[in-house]
Amino acid sequence: MSASKKRIVYQEFGNVENEAAIARAVPELPPQQQQLRVQASRKGRKGKTVTEVTGFQCTPETLNQLLKQLKTQCGTGGTAKDNMLELQGEHKQKLVELLTKLGYKVKMSGG
Fold it and tell me: CB burial class (10 A; 0-12, 13-18, 19+) of residue 88?
């Protein structure tokens, strides 16, 4: 069936083609209002240490810009997943210092 002859018999929640209209809004809080946690983890990574930063309340674009900045400062790789940053290696102390300079409220968790 062609797209121009698509017949909708029943539709409960508006126009499905306009996904931007039904997408959930992400609150963009300033850094001073965000509570972040920094912890090192090895679970599920075959013994490799990864430093995780959780608690972000911002858009994915802002998160990716911050990730790029932190990866450059730490000299390592990393990724952004589900409002969380993962940086390869153990960089807890350095990340706490960098994020505090950027205005975030940061706590180190774990040993």
Answer: middle
User: pLDDT for 17-46, tens place per residue?
Assistant: 666 665 666 678 888 999 999 999 998 888
Place of tokens 């240490």: 49
Tell me which residue has tokens 């998160």. 63
Looking at residue 1, its amino acid is M
Q: How confident is the model at residue 10 (pLDDT cuts 50, 70, 90)?
A: confident
**Backbone φ and ψ of 69, nearest 5°:** -65, -45
Q: What's the CATH number of domain 27-108, 3.40.50.720, 3.10.560.10, 2.60.40.790, 3.30.780.10?
A: 3.30.780.10
Which structure tokens are listed for 84?
């969380």
